[in-house]
Design goal:
301 residues, alpha/beta, 7-stranded mixed beta sheet
């Protein structure tokens, strides 16, 4: 059975708290697992969340600030310790290659797994699989940062009433899907486009074109909201978003489920992030993330 869900491993920003670990997010997408921004303590959070090293197929790092990448050393060594049987691919900004190298070889260990490095140099597609296309977009932060977007290919939804009207049933339905036409009936007459699901991961950034491009039409958007709206000046200065800004992006992009995360330790009331997001006019499903939360990707429309 396919599973599509986000497993939240950590939700703090620069400074962890008693209740929030540094960043870490696992996207389960059918049979694959994509780990985003493994901050310090991610390996232990994986254990607490029931996530195994064998679940990881890709690692995507947005940028090389410690709260988004210091967990790489432990995660990479755990992948090798557990002898993960499949290839694991790592994406990260090319400009941070020296940081990735240091983290990958921070201490001595035995390499047993094929870890493929696929650094990101510019906006564009990073990978195409049968289940999704993974792409990156540049963000606006004091160090080079990229957000990630996963898009499922569009499919077809068969319409039973139209099939029945043309007398098509049983194995003939499969033949029509495979060949595109059957006895003068074309696929478009008895089906409609089934829009592929879309997911985006947007971390440390100011408002910029990349944020809007990543969020466009997403079923599930995970986005930083480090600051509350009254601290917008600090957000701009340090290259971050406020709760209201993140919600406005989601509203304008038609996002179905918005997940706010990456909270500054200065705030003690997480409900205020939700209040400000709603005040910005976002009316879709909204989650203020906490550690070890699981968020399902919304079902197709």
């Amino acid at each position: 059975m396919s599973v599509r869900e986000l497993v939240v491993l950590g939700t703090a920003s620069q400074v962890p708290t008693r209740h929030r670990n540094h960043n870490g997010y696992l996207l389960r997408w059918d049979g694959e697992g994509i780990l985003f921004d493994p901050g310090e303590g991610t390996q232990r959070q994986m254990l607490r969340a029931g996530v195994a090293a064998h679940d990881l197929n890709r690692i995507c790092v947005t940028h090389f600030h410690g709260d988004h990448s210091l967990g790489l050393a432990g995660v990479i060594q755990r992948i090798n310790l557990d002898r993960v049987p499949h290839e694991v691919t790592a994406h990260y900004p090319q400009s941070g290659q020296r940081f990735f190298d240091r983290l990958r070889y921070a201490t001595a260990y035995r390499e047993t797994v094929r870890l493929t490095e696929a650094p990101v140099e510019a906006d564009g597609v990073l990978a195409r699989t049968g289940g999704y296309t993974l792409e990156a977009r540049r963000l606006s932060h004091p160090v080079e940062s990229f957000g990630y977007r996963l898009t499922e290919p569009d499919g077809r939804r068969m319409l039973p009433d139209r099939l029945a009207a043309h007398g098509i049933k049983g194995p003939d339905v499969g033949r029509l899907q495979a060949e595109g036409s059957l006895n003068g009936v074309v696929l478009d007459e008895v089906s409609e486009v089934r829009r592929g699901q879309r997911f985006a991961f947007v971390m440390d950034t100011r408002l910029c074109d990349g944020v809007h491009a990543l969020a466009d039409g997403c079923d599930l958007l995970v986005i930083e909201s480090t600051f509350l709206d009254e601290d917008e000046r600090l957000a701009v200065e340090h290259g971050h978003l406020t709760a209201g800004q993140a919600a406005t992006v989601a509203r304008d992009a038609g996002v179905r489920h918005l997940v706010l995360t990456h909270f500054s330790q200065r705030y003690s009331d997480p409900e205020e992030f939700e209040r400000q997001a709603r005040a910005a006019g976002y009316e879709g499903e909204l989650t203020v993330a906490h550690d070890l939360l699981r968020v399902p990707v919304p079902k197709r429309r």
